[in-house]
Design goal:
By secondary structure, the protein is an alpha/beta fold. Helices cover 39% and strands 15% of the residues. It has an 8-stranded parallel β-barrel with strand order 1-2-3-4-5-6-7-8, surrounded by 6 helices. The chain starts with 8 loop residues before the first helix and ends in a 17-residue tail after the last helix.
Length: 269
């Protein structure tokens, strides 16, 4: 008899002693996702907010990741219960919700992931998450494996951090440094002291409410600083950032830049 597992690998990584480290999938490529899955990183964010990834792409990316050890976070494009329902049916288990501004926003995100009476998720028996119906007890087993991560990305939502983190069903709070900096009038200046102070203070506020805290750094040095602040999981750049950095380093070995004079700008017509 085949035993069907339903394990949230990212949730398991959070229970381990080392701070989980991950990255963003910006290429929208299942092949790149699969390669990241074997890289040794702990999680990868499948991003539907800023990347041209749609539901069929999510399914193929999740298929590629399923055979690897890595945990997966799927960032929804918006706090939309219809999108959430389809992603959960497609097999996503950890969802990240961008631009959560209020406790009502956070509560709505949680409700979208729960079956009635706790929430509003529609019930279907045959879909990828239930192994196309082979997992007959999916409705009972799925709930404990789900995770809801809400993003705090503005000055206003950061001021409500304690209340948002207190919402039942929210598992973690994720600070979006770039948008937070922009909302503070520091567009493009994530390292500004005011922005960094908010980032530094966040983990303790989340932990006081029994919630995990996560964020992302542009490189390993910044990520190490954030881990030192007490963040429970930290992202580092993305697959495209890593690819460009590798090519820049290789070209630098030849005394060249990523864009040569002949290719740095389009011809004038």
């Amino acid at each position: 008899m085949i035993t069907l597992e339903l394990v949230n690998k990212f949730k398991n990584r959070l229970a381990e002693p080392l701070t989980p480290l991950g990255t963003w999938l910006m290429s929208a490529s299942p092949t790149c996702a699969e390669a990241i899955g074997w890289s040794g990183l702990d999680f990868v964010v499948v991003d539907m907010e800023h990347v041209p990834i749609e539901l069929p792409d999510v399914i193929e990316i999740h298929r590629a990741l399923a055979a690897t050890p890595i945990g997966t976070i799927t960032r929804v494009p918006w706090n939309d219960p219809v999108v959430v329902k389809r992603l959960l049916d497609a097999g996503a288990q950890t969802l990240m919700f961008p631009m959560i501004q209020t406790t009502d926003d956070a509560a709505a995100a949680v409700r979208a992931t729960r079956y009635p009476p706790a929430g509003i998720r529609g019930v279907a028996a045959v879909h990828r998450a239930s192994r196309y119906g082979a997992m007959s007890d999916y409705l009972k087993r799925s709930g404990p494996e789900l995770m809801v991560i809400v993003q705090i990305e503005t000055r206003e939502s950061w001021a409500r951090l304690d209340a948002i983190a207190s919402v039942d069903g929210v598992d973690a709070v994720f600070i979006g440094p770039a948008d937070l900096a922009a909302s503070m009038g520091r567009l493009g200046d994530v390292m500004h002291p005011e922005v960094q102070e908010a980032i530094r203070a966040t983990p303790a506020l989340c932990h006081a409410r029994g919630k995990k805290a996560g964020t992302v750094g542009a490189n390993a040095d910044v990520a190490k600083t954030y881990a030192g602040h007490g963040y429970d999981f930290v992202g580092i750049g993305s697959d495209l950032v890593a690819m460009n950095a590798t090519f820049k380093a290789q070209l630098a070995a030849f005394g060249r830049g990523l864009l040569t004079p002949s290719t740095s700008a389009p011809a004038a017509y």
